[in-house]
Design brief:
By secondary structure, the chain is an alpha+beta fold. Helix content is 41%, strand content 11%. Strands 1-3-2 form a three-stranded antiparallel beta sheet, with helices on one face.
Length: 92
Amino acid sequence: EPLAVTAEFHHLVARALRIAQITEGAFDPTIYPLIKLYGFEGKRRIPSAEELSAVKPSIGWNKLDVLEQNRLRKRSPDVQIDLSGMAKGFGS
């Protein structure tokens, strides 16, 4: 189901996906599962190959669609985004 978001968030996600497309995925806003797995929000760690394999299906900028009328759609229910790579600059 499409998710309604604010106009600002919609704009930011659209820009993030455009950058992901231009960089051929070098910038990927769907990396939140990796952020959690590596512990960048707290105690850092190196995940196992099995843990990495488990989150891989939920990562990929092409699994998120920007729709009209300030809506987004995840192509997989496990997709989670992290916009910290650009949100701070957007807020300045």
